[in-house]
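Tokens in:
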């Protein structure tokens, strides 16, 4: 290998290791390392063996490795493939379908929050927008009779529209009054949560007919329920397909459409965008409506994917988890998809980990650690001695130089 070729290879390698994708992968790895450390120090067998560490250190090391292996193997069995039930294909492959089912609303909500990030907005009201969308979808699915097929489509559209209207209200207040979207969305979270609870308490509105004291809605009509994708043996339903469609729509909207170009311009520099003739205030309103519309897909998933009545806790913290998914995914369509699948795996694998005697908070620590490392790029670069990202990529410089040489 010539010196020039070796230099180019090293330069390209340095460029690869300085990318955000590399830091994201390493952040996920560090999060699992932190989780492993917590497993070790919270395991009873490890603590007992540590009492005589100086006499028999290998016992402590073996117990530590066993705790980590048992914990993460339980996560694998609960989220990917249950090899202990290999004789039963349905039971063996059910974990991956559960991961996809849990991931669907996280992906949709993550796309909504990511869109806000790309426009320079912090949409922290995902939970409220989701509950408002659930309110509309539940009303249509329980109180309106429509033909099969049409009923489901209308219920999905109403979930998206309901969430989008709440998001548009945030954008309108920001554009007209200058109200900060963080404060407005936080307050609307409380309003939406209490409004949903009120509707679930009133039998004349959405309360389950003849229900008890716990607020609960009627189950969605059969004609408005999301159909299962793999038959009755699995709970995976059409909500995952809606999430995949949302990923494609988000990619096209942000990367190929005119309004997506305006969104990105305002996110980079609203003052420059205004100078270029873009109505920044109107863009904020459109962006918040679009952001909440993606969250509305998560609302449709929660409201119409159920076969029984819904409770006020139907949001399951998805709106807040969507913030984490958007951060981990770098606000890009492929990134949010992969981050949603990862966190869906965490949700699916938490139950088997509890069966193994591990605290479910372990996965919360892993998630929090991942976000911590994502938010601190210098820390990750310092741990792995990664090069700093260049303002102008070296690979582009190499392409320019080679093209100039060909012209000569």
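Residues out:
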């Amino acid at each position: 290998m010539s010196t020039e070729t070796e230099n180019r290879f090293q330069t390209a390698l340095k460029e690869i290791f300085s990318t955000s994708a590399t830091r994201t992968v390493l952040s996920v790895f560090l999060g699992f390392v932190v989780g492993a450390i917590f497993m070790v120090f919270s395991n009873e067998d490890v603590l007992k063996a540590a009492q005589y560490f100086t006499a028999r250190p290998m016992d402590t090391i073996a117990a530590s490795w066993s705790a980590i292996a048992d914990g993460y193997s339980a996560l694998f069995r609960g989220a990917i493939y249950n090899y202990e039930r290999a004789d039963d294909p349905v039971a063996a492959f059910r974990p991956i379908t559960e991961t996809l089912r849990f991931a669907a609303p996280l992906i949709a909500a993550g796309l909504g929050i990511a869109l806000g990030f790309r426009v320079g907005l912090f949409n922290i009201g995902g939970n409220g927008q989701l509950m408002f969308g659930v309110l509309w979808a539940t009303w249509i699915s329980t109180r309106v009779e429509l033909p099969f097929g049409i009923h489901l489509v209308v219920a999905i559209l109403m979930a998206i529209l309901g969430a989008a209207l709440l998001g548009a209200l945030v954008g309108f207040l920001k554009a007209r009054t200058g109200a900060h979207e963080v404060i407005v969305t936080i307050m609307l979270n409380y309003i939406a949560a209490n409004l949903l609870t009120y509707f679930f308490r009133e039998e004349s509105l959405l309360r389950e007919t003849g229900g008890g004291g716990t607020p609960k809605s009627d189950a969605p009509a059969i004609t408005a329920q999301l159909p299962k994708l793999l038959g009755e043996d699995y709970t995976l339903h059409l909500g995952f397909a809606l999430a995949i469609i949302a990923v494609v729509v988000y990619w096209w909207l942000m990367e190929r459409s005119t309004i997506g170009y305006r969104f990105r311009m305002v996110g980079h520099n609203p003052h420059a965008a205004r100078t270029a003739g873009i109505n920044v205030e109107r863009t904020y309103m459109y962006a918040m409506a679009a952001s909440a519309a993606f969250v509305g897909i998560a609302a449709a998933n929660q409201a119409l994917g159920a076969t029984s009545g819904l409770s006020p806790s139907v949001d399951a913290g998805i709106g807040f988890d969507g913030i984490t998914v958007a951060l981990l995914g770098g606000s890009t369509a492929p990134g949010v998809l992969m981050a949603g699948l990862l966190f869906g795996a965490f949700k699916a694998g938490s139950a088997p980990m509890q069966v193994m005697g591990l605290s479910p908070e372990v996965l919360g620590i892993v998630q929090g650690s991942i976000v911590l490392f994502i938010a601190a790029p210098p820390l990750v670069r310092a741990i792995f001695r990664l090069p700093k990202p260049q303002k102008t990529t070296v690979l582009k410089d190499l392409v320019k130089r080679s093209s100039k040489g060909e012209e000569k």
